[in-house]
Amino acid sequence: MSEIADGFRSGYVAIVGRPNVGKSTLLNHLIGQKISITSSKAQTTRHRIHGIHTDEHAQFVFVDTPGFQLKHLNALNRGMNRVVTSSLRDVQAVLYVLEALRYDERDQEVLKLLPDNRPVILVINKIDAVDEKGELFDFAERVSKDFKHVLGREEGFADIVPVSAKFGKQIDELRETLRGFLPEGGLIYDPDDVTDRSERFLAAEILREKVFRLTGEELPYSVSVVIEAFSMDKKLRRISAAILVDKEAHKAMLLGKKGEKIKEIATQARLDMEKLFDGKVFLEVFIKVRSGWADDSRMLQSLGYE
Ligand SMILES: Nc1nc2c(ncn2[C@@H]2O[C@H](COP(=O)(O)OP(=O)(O)OP(=O)(O)O)[C@@H](O)[C@H]2O)c(=O)[nH]1
Ligand SMILES: [Mg+2]
User: Fold this and answer.
1) Is residue 240 included in any domain, yes or no?
2) Is the pTM of the predicted complex or chain greater than 0.85?
3) Which residues of the chain have pLDDT under 50?
């Protein structure tokens, strides 16, 4: 292991919030690489993923989590909620993410899960979409009040940082704020690592992201991706992936006219994989119908949920 400076700090920081507030976008900007998939549809993230940022003085291990669900509690969503609650147990600090000027019962449900003995930083995201920046003060105060009231934490949030994750605004400031909350300690991961997840996992996620981004409203939630083969052929990565759908009708939607939709999904996925893995990729994609996979505990187990 490489030399680390005196007073080096390290620790885990959970990123939590309701679906679609921008947690994964924030994680990617905090570490400077896109490892966690994002889309304009809620419930994009389904698994916990670590994003690692190491510099001379500290190692931050950010823990991205699925958006916490109140509705549609099938086995998949219950599994996702468990990921949120268990991620909160073993971290040194928490980023509680809200969308600027929006605070409703779904946000409050997440607030109730926050630990009462760790610093919680309120991150107000999407400030680029706010015209009257002055309104952010009242908003922050209202949420702080609720935090104190609901959790009985008189000291309030450890800090409040308005950001625009998408446009990379105030991200360095947020990381600097966090630095002070990390305890002294050695490296948790190799300093060159950016995530704890394998290329196999990342490949599946990238493909799922393209399904989320390139198909209509209903389809993405009934889709899952399995990597059936992943091998290195000299410097070429050969990847064979299956997209699991619930019904024949979904398969037709994924295929599109003359198979154009799936072709576009596969091409975009391959390009992103090549960028992330820094090498050529040969990607084969199949579509399989497996009805009820999102409520089938054996199926979920094989997809990585306990
Ligand atoms: N305008 C604006 N949009 C943002 C910002 N950050 C994220 N978004 C958008 O918000 C949407 C959701 O972003 P994600 O990062 O996928 O959100 P998430 O909280 O991880 O969502 P789940 O994984 O579904 O819980 C995407 O369309 C992002 O481009 C921001 O700072 N400003
Ligand atoms: Mg996400």
Assistant:
1) yes
2) yes
3) 1, 306
